[in-house]
Write a structure and sequence with these properties.
Chain lengths: 508, 84
């Protein structure tokens, strides 16, 4: 059997619920029997509509044992967005924990997915013998949607082989000792939280402590939680640390050995503050991408001096800096940057995704003979250390949550009263970046603004709604008719933002 | 400074950090700032920054209980305790 139950214990930091290894084995057996009875088998895609709970991890093991592929769904998405994902992924099953929104239930019915309750599965009577494992090494294990929830979804498909390669290389590069008691404050529907923060240590037999994603209660009690659960490792994102540094008293017992911070740029200043608060020098700016099963590189020693943009060395993969990011020809035919020269970051890792779900065209744009074009700009110095200098991708990083302008624009464009729209990045003191939107309306009146607002609320998750919106007469374009988001942002900078919500009163 | 004056300063500040889709003018003093959707949870940091800058509060040795800043009324109570 490819899947072994040498997992660690699980607990929930705030509720106090715990499953030790025998309880996890029991939950696994119950679920395998229950899902098997309901027809789950090899190749089935299974939407999972909850996260950061004990049940998720027993469900993952059961889905994988039966040969299925888990698709964690961001619980913040609107029914409109979930339907788009469901049409793209065609799940045969969807797992809920407790009540599910009736409109979501109906749309899942509409795409032929059977909705099952995870808790009922865990309370069912396990009936040995265990159904035979349907897991194959090159079978799909996990699909993580990174963008396109409003139109053309981009689902990153990882096989058991790529995930296993990731966990093995991390274990080789980082060891396991620091991960004995791991805390997860991150959402488990994306790579950083699920693949690396949770599954890497837990599937290696280390204990995992789960907190609700981004919970202020957990963050403001971080020191106490670290002491109470004897936490040795945690990973997080910069905004969580900014809040923790203000609200939480440090842990007292000195159990914390290693801290990772990732998914968004970590400044040298914040890096030093985290070191001081956590009491360990072993604080790492972890670089990862969903397509490479998240963590890819970082520093592994505490003696380095924090620097803006410093990542460190690759963990099990190879990083090279090229003068372009084209996949039209073999990488070897391209021109490599000199040491210290900034260029496009390419990586070669055994943990690379199989590809984007049903989008070979998109895969071909970023993968070339096993090399992956990350979309990041960076350099490698004489020591072989990677520094990031920016991103080439059209992406707004709101404190680790990625917002894709095209996702928002595709919704706004479909609104009848909109002639043109452009989304862009705004500087934000808390999140680093936030979403701005410039829009040209057919009629600039209150009714149109309110109707647009209602339309956006219906179709976009809250985190995708613009922080500031501007109504323009025209959106500046290049002479070739192309959008330059920086130019649009600059044009809006001097304007007063427009209220789109219920209080909107007259466009500028 | 009176409670109403403190409230006016606070509301002016909240106007700058609230979510654009949630209006503040229909908001009750006791409504949860996060639970009502007026701000997202991590924006509590900005309220803490505001209290430090405007009222000289120092949370570095005490930490912050999120319940103390969960509503306009709670924040005003905290200001009154700290400035008494």
């Amino acid at each position: 059997m490819l899947l072994e139950l040498r997992v660690g214990n699980l607990s929930e930091a705030l509720s106090g619920r715990q499953w030790d290894q025998p309880a996890i084995a029991q939950q696994f057996l119950c679920r395998v029997g229950y899902y098997h009875q309901h027809g789950m088998g090899p190749g089935d895609r299974v939407f999972v509509h909850f996260g950061n709970t004990l049940e998720l991890f027993a469900d993952l093991l059961a889905i994988w044992h039966l040969g299925g592929c888990a698709v964690p769904i961001d619980t913040r998405l609107t029914p409109f967005e979930i339907e788009i994902l469901a049409k793209a992924a065609a799940p045969r099953f969807a797992l809920q924990l407790g009540a599910m929104d009736s409109s979501v239930h109906n749309l899942l019915d509409g795409v032929g997915a059977t909705v099952l309750d995870s808790r009922a599965a865990g309370e069912s009577v396990a009936a040995p013998p265990l159904p035979p494992s349907g897991l194959i090494l090159d079978g799909d294990a996990l699909i993580l949607f990174t963008s396109g929830s409003t139109g053309s979804p981009k689902g990153v498909v990882h096989t058991h082989r790529s995930l296993r390669a990731q966990w093995m290389t991390l274990r080789h590069s980082l060891g396991l000792d620091a991960y004995r008691r791991t805390l997860c404050l991150l959402p488990t529907h994306f790579g950083h939280g699920l693949i690396c923060n949770c599954l890497f240590p837990w599937l290696s037999g280390q204990d995992l402590v789960l907190a609700p994603a981004g919970s202020v209660t957990a963050i403001s009690n971080l020191g106490r939680l670290i002491d109470e659960h004897r936490i040795t490792f945690m990973s997080s994102v910069p905004p969580i640390w900014r809040l923790a540094l203000k609200t939480a008293l440090p842990a007292r017992n000195g159990t914390l050995q290693r801290v990772f911070c990732g998914s968004a740029p970590l400044s040298a200043h914040l890096w030093r503050q985290i070191r001081a608060w956590s009491g360990t020098p072993d604080v790492c700016n972890a670089y990862g991408i969903t397509e490479t099963a998240s963590w890819l590189a970082g520093t592994t020693v505490g003696t380095i001096e924090p620097e803006d943009g410093l990542i460190g060395v690759p963990w099990g993969g190879v990083i090279t800096i090229m003068k372009d990011a084209t996949t039209d020809r073999p990488l070897a035919d391209g021109e490599q940057c000199r040491s210290g020269e900034a260029g496009f970051v390419w990586v070669n890792t055994p943990a690379l995704m199989r590809g984007y779900l049903g989008r070979d065209d998109l895969t071909a744009r970023v993968v070339c003979q096993g090399w992956f074009a990350t979309g990041d700009i960076g350099l490698v110095d004489d020591r072989g250390w990677l520094y990031l200098r920016g991103r080439e991708r059209d992406e707004i990083n709101r404190g680790g949550t990625k917002i894709y302008p095209a996702d928002v624009e595709s919704v706004v464009e479909r609104f009848d009263g909109v002639e043109d729209v452009c989304c862009f990045a705004l500087d934000d003191p808390l999140y680093g970046q936030a979403l701005g939107m410039a829009v040209v309306l057919v009629r600039r009146d209150d009714d149109t603004l309110r109707a647009l607002h209602a339309w956006m609320r219906q179709h976009l998750a809250t985190f995708q709604l613009p922080s500031r919106s501007y109504v323009l007469d025209t959106i500046p374009r290049t002479s070739r008719g192309k959008l330059n988001r920086d130019t649009v942002a600059a044009a809006c900078a001097a304007l007063v933002p427009q209220e789109l919500g219920p209080r909107s009163s007259g466009a500028a | 400074m009176s409670r109403s004056a403190h409230k006016q300063r606070l509301v002016e500040f909240l106007e700058t950090i609230r979510r654009p889709e949630v209006p503040l003018d229909t908001f009750d003093e006791r409504d949860g700032l996060v639970s009502s959707g007026l701000i997202d949870s991590l924006a509590l940091l900005q309220i803490i920054d505001f209290l430090e800058a405007e009222y000289g509060m120092d949370f570095s040795t005490t930490g912050v209980d999120p319940d103390q800043i969960s509503s306009i009324a709670e924040i005003l109570d905290l200001i009154e305790r700290q400035t008494a």
